[in-house]
Specification:
The protein has 138 residues and is mainly α. The chain is 65% helix and 0% strand.
Length: 138
Amino acid sequence: MVSLKGIFNTDANYPGIQIKVELSVIQKYLSLIETGVSSVCNKYLREEESKIDGLEYSEFSHIYQIAEDEIPRLIRTPYIVTIYTLFENSVTQLLNYAQERECKSLGLKDINGKSLQSKFNKYMAHIVLYEFEFNNNE
């Protein structure tokens, strides 16, 4: 059988390719979200402005606050959860792969930490001995 090891310098279990695809898809999706947010806000304003003929500004000023703050927040919030979940899943996959490659008996699930970030950092520093650390800025 012909070996592809010289052509493709990675093994089939490496999760980075799948992670790259997921990140590319979410990046494209997020760029489309902004178009959707703008469209929903503009539609809301058009509908509400058609109802305010003859009213004082103080009686309808809240619609602008809703369109500028509330609607975008409601639409964007679930994507923050999605991005965080994608991050957590990607790093977990990479560290599980590292455990396998480095032949370590302790897995990520065996490590305790105050936060997910500290758990990742402890595992990288003390188990697989990687010189990488997530900091609060990241």
